[in-house]
Every structure is written in structure tokens, then in C-alpha cells.
Amino acid sequence: MPHPATAVQETAGGVAPHLRRLLEFVEPDRDDVCLDVARGRGPMPAALRPQVRHLTAVDATPAPEEPGRSGRMATVEFGTGPVRITGPAGDGDRPPATATREDPRPRPASPAVKADATALPYRDDAFSLVTARFSLYTLGEPDLVLRELLRVCRSGGRLVIADLVRGNLAGPERDRIERLRDPDHPGTPSIARLTEMITSAGATIRRLDVFTVERPVEPWLASARDEASADRIREALIDEVDGGPRTGAKPRVIGGELWFTQSWAHVAAEPI
């Protein structure tokens, strides 16, 4: 009988390729004591738990900043819709198979610990592996979050950050599209800026993995602030497909659906 964690990270018989790529980059060890810090519940705890000695999952969703607000929305929703890694192994213009989807079903794992990502309730050097996947910019001030993640990571351990980055050729128009969807979007950093933040927080960069993915537009637009904003984004992307001004999102039509690109980065660092 498969391990429960295996069952929840698989769809159509395989781990989603982008999640598998991250797991291979993390290089979990059976002796690792791991901490995963996220906004809400992501797939990392279920995927990592069978591969490490112990895993602690922290839900560091910030409290609402002011009455009447539901709090800052996640800059990117990664648990809905398919994701395809582009490159030589791509599949042309065919829609990706269901195996590329993250399973949205509830994950039968231990409850996550509620905590502030800038003040984690753990002693110094408590973990050999610390991970944060697509949450660094939604948990608080990124510099403070990074310092706290490094504080609880022991000497010789690994901090692995997975997040959006700005492509080398992407201009300010790329963030304009992101801010139409999420007015609180802080801006997408370049890979140089992300690595500079990590080193300034007190770490040495050990490994990098930067790549491009394609995603369908509609699941991403489901969390737009309103339908008018979603319509403006659709219009801008369709206009670019038809030869209009560039948005930086490199949209195209795949299988009758509108898709766009994002640049993702995996960064492995070691506390100094």
C-alpha cells in the first residue's frame, strides 16, 4: 500500500514535474530534521516527510493588517491548474497531461504550526534543512524572514528558497500585469536581487536552478481583485498574441487556451 504522502503528491501516476524538480534540487536526506515555512498549506510537507527523519510544517500566514481586510493575498496561487516546464523536453502546443498538476485534494498530514515567519518559535540551529516555496514575499518583510530562516538553520545545513524571479529581458511591464491581479504585489526580483538578499541575510549561495514555466491564464486570474482587472489582463495578453505591445508574460494559445510564462528559481544556501 503506498505511503499516504506519496498518494497526495501524485496525480495520474506521477509527481508533478515542477515539484519533482524542486525535490531533486533540495536533496533531502534520511537524517535531515526539516522545517517548511509556507503561507497556508502547500505540497512540500507531504512530499518531504517520507524522505527525512522529521519534518515540521509552519503556516506563517500573516494576520490581517487592518479591520475590513482579509489580509494580503498570496502573490501567486500555485495549487491550481497545470504547470509546464519549458525547454527541449517540452511538448509543443499540446496541453500538458494531468500529471503536471498539483493535487488540490486535502493532504492527510499533521497540522501545521501557526507562527510568525519573522519570529519562529524554535531555538537557533534547530534544523538541518529549511524550505520556503513561493512564500518569501507574502510572509512579511523578506529580509527579516530570511534572517529568521537562517537563524534556525544549523551550520552546514541548507536553506532552500523557491520563488518567482524576473527574467533577464523582462521590463517593468511584467510587474504591471502582476499588480493588476494583485495590487499588493511587491515586485518580482531579478535572480541577482534574490541572491543578494540571501547573502546579505547571512548565507553563502551553494546552488542555483532558474527556469521558465508556462501556465494557463484562467486559474491564475481566479484570484484577481475583481473581474474588471481580470478582463484588462486578458485583453493585454490577447493583444500581445495578436502582435500588440509586449507585456513581458510571453502569452500564447495552447489547445485553445491562453497561457503565459513565469520564471522560477530554486536557490540553495548555507548559513555563514
UniProtKB/TrEMBL annotation:
Residues 108-161 form the Methyltransferase type domain. Residues 59-114 are annotated as: Disordered. It comes from the Bacteria. GO terms for biological process: methylation. One of its GO terms (molecular function) is methyltransferase activity. Keywords: Methyltransferase, Transferase. This is Methyltransferase domain-containing protein.
